[in-house]
């Protein structure tokens, strides 16, 4: 009898504790729906990334196609014109994303990107290929900027590191898709293969809600609650989370202006975001991704098609490793390790070309293969993924989409410059000079990252923004208490 009463009392306490946990917001939100929403929003990145990686496997066969007469300049434009299209698209992407919603923008890009792929597949000559690539590039601007924003706003803080990297993971999958399609199909058929994921995204996105942050930004509180309820589950108490979101939006305002990027509370995150894009581009990772086949051919690697596919598999492995360790090791350690690895590996590749082209000493072909695979592994460990994640994390809700697209514009501007310069730089100074340059810049970025890249692991979006705002307030308070002359004197001592 006593045992039964004790059991009944324990059951009652257990129910009370569970109810208390729910009231206090201590029950974790449902994971499966948050994962599904991020997967749905990231599917388009498979096709968008295939646009970037497509030339790695298809350039050799396109150069052999009698219908396409390509000079060095034509080849450079076929590779880089997507970045020009992306720059054009990024001018409008932020405003449209804030006006129509993250989910709506993603869905509307499906017909545009599909049209771009079909144009390339049916192109009778090089100018039409460039037109199709331009269309694809404009569509990727919306997909690259909107997907990370959606995947940073949908998950809880405990999941945002891993789920926020799903768009970057799908970037890797998309590049590998283009490698495989280019290796086993003609360059025209590969276009149809690469267009399949964007169609799937359009279908799957019908099953998930709009970002709760966007609903709140538009003052649609009931829709915001419905979105959170679908994402977190019916047992999750999101009242505290919602209150924090509302407080932050009310404190920063709802009006979006580009000059907000240079205001004190946003300037430092914006500069960090620009540095991360610089780091991503000057590491030379995009050169290795988009000229893979030609690099293997010039280095004397046998069966360059299979080597390109293996390069894609390495990308998948190390992007997954980055995804599963981002919330354990943190963002900054991965960035530092990534730039260090790619720097050393790229310098080794430069040494190989120096010995081969200048001193005519032939090293085994596995040396450049290993160098490229190691550099690609390092690139995917952080350089490829973290800039997009941090660009979506560092800003408040009001300015997030605008900041993300401004960063994307800068990123693509650097990409155009580097991809245009690379073939001519290699012809003029040799491949060894190119890879010595990229390797040295990567090592410099590794050192700078230690001092400037913030750690956002485990923090909510509101806490991250509060960190920059509180840092600015402390700095202002310090300047009031300690005049500039006193600070300078103390520093010189």
Task: Outline the secondary-structure elements.
Blueprint: H1 2-23, H2 31-64, H3 72-100, H4 102-121, H5 126-153, H6 157-163, H7 166-184, H8 187-204, H9 212-217, H10 221-232, H11 239-252, H12 264-282, H13 285-290, H14 292-298, H15 304-329, H16 331-358, H17 366-383, H18 386-393, H19 397-429, H20 431-452, H21 461-481, H22 484-492
Helix pairs in contact: 2-3, 2-4, 2-5, 2-7, 2-8, 3-4, 3-5, 3-19, 4-5, 4-8, 5-18, 5-19, 6-15, 7-8, 7-15, 12-18, 12-19, 12-21, 14-15, 15-16, 15-17, 16-17, 16-20, 18-19, 19-20
Tell me about this structure:
Helix content is 82%, strand content 0%. Mean pLDDT is 83; it is low at 1-26 and 476-493. It is globular and about 70 Å long. It contains 22 helices and no strands. By secondary structure, it is mainly alpha-helical.
């Amino acid at each position: 009898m006593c045992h039964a009463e004790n059991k009944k009392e324990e059951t009652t306490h257990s129910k009370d504790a569970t109810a208390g946990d729910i009231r206090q917001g201590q029950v974790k939100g449902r994971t499966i729906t948050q994962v599904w929403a991020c997967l749905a929003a990231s599917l388009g990145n498979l096709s968008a990334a295939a646009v970037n990686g497509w030339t790695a496997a298809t350039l050799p066969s396109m150069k052999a196609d009698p219908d396409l007469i390509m000079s060095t300049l034509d080849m450079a434009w076929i590779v880089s014109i997507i970045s020009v299209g992306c720059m054009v698209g990024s001018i409008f992407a932020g405003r449209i994303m804030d006006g129509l919603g993250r989910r709506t923008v993603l869905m509307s890009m499906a017909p545009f990107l599909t049209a771009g792929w079909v144009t390339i597949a049916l192109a009778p000559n090089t100018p039409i290929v460039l037109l199709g690539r331009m269309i694809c590039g404009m569509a990727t601007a919306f997909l690259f900027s909107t997907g990370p924003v959606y995947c940073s706003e949908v998950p809880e803080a405990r999941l945002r590191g891993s789920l926020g990297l799903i768009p970057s993971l799908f970037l890797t999958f998309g590049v590998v898709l283009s490698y495989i399609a280019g290796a086993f199909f003609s360059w025209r058929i590969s276009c149809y293969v690469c267009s399949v994921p964007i169609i799937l995204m359009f279908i799957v996105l019908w099953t998930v809600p709009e970002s709760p942050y966007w609903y709140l930004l538009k003052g649609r509180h009931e829709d915001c609650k419905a979105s959170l309820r679908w994402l977190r589950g019916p047992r999750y108490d999101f009242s505290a989370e919602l209150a924090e979101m509302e407080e932050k939006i009310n404190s920063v305002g709802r009006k979006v202006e580009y000059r907000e990027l240079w205001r004190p509370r946003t300037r430092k995150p914006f500069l960090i975001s620009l540095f991360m894009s610089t780091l991503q581009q000057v590491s030379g990772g995009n050169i290795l991704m988009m000229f893979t086949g030609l690099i293997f051919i010039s280095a004397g690697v046998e069966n360059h098609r299979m080597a390109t596919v293996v390069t894609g598999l390495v990308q998948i492995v190390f992007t997954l490793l980055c995804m599963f360790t981002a919330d354990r090791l943190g963002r900054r350690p991965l960035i530092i390790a990534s730039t260090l690895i790619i720097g050393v590996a790229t310098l080794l590749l430069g040494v190989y070309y120096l010995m081969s082209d200048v001193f005519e000493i032939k090293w085994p072909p596995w040396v450049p293969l290993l160098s490229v695979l190691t550099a690609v592994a390092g690139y995917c460990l952080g350089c490829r993924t973290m800039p997009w994640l941090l660009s979506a994390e560092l800003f408040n809700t009001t300015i997030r989409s605008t900041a993300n697209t401004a960063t994307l514009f800068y990123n693509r501007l650097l990409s155009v410059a580097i991809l245009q310069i690379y073939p001519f730089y290699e012809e003029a100074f040799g491949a060894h000079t190119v890879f010595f340059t990229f390797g040295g810049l990567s090592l410099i970025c590794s050192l700078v990252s230690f001092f400037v890249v913030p750690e956002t692991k485990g923090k909510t979006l509101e806490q991250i923004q509060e960190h920059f705002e509180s840092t600015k307030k402390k700095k202002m308070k310090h300047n009031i208490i300690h005049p500039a002359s006193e600070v300078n004197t103390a520093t010189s001592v």
